[in-house]
């Protein structure tokens, strides 16, 4: 059952990239990040063990009107135990010819594969935002360093944030 969901997410990202290619040949991008998350709830339960874990989320986006664009991404937090999708608006600004900053504001849709003793995540939506730096080391590739925050609703009714730092690569097409 996990394979069809992963395949549909990959297909959705590809379609987002294809739609972005229709906007302009140089305004679409595809990225892959190494992301490390930090929960603000106690760990140690079966659902959320204390190992932080790292994941490799994939995302795609397009600048619609410079410097503002949209982005769609697959999200995995807590060593892949939380799966979700992020949709948001991205703003970019150049600080120097090869260096830039970006900001992101959007919605996160999250689900947990299992809920053990009420420690799972309610399926639903939450706010996500992030900031980061980019370095264009070639005309079609960038290195990205970012910080993101995701608002999640837990089964107990409590809302909490998951913060993550990431290092990644972005390819423009």
Automatic annotation (TrEMBL):
SUPFAM superfamilies cross-referenced by the UniProt entry: OMPA-like
Signal sequence residues: 1-20
The UniProt record lists the keyword Signal: yes
Pfam family, one: OMP_b-brl
Localization in the cell: Cell outer membrane
Location (main, coarse): membrane
GO cellular component, one term: cell outer membrane
Protein name: Porin family protein
Lineage: Bacteria, Pseudomonadati, Pseudomonadota, Betaproteobacteria, Burkholderiales
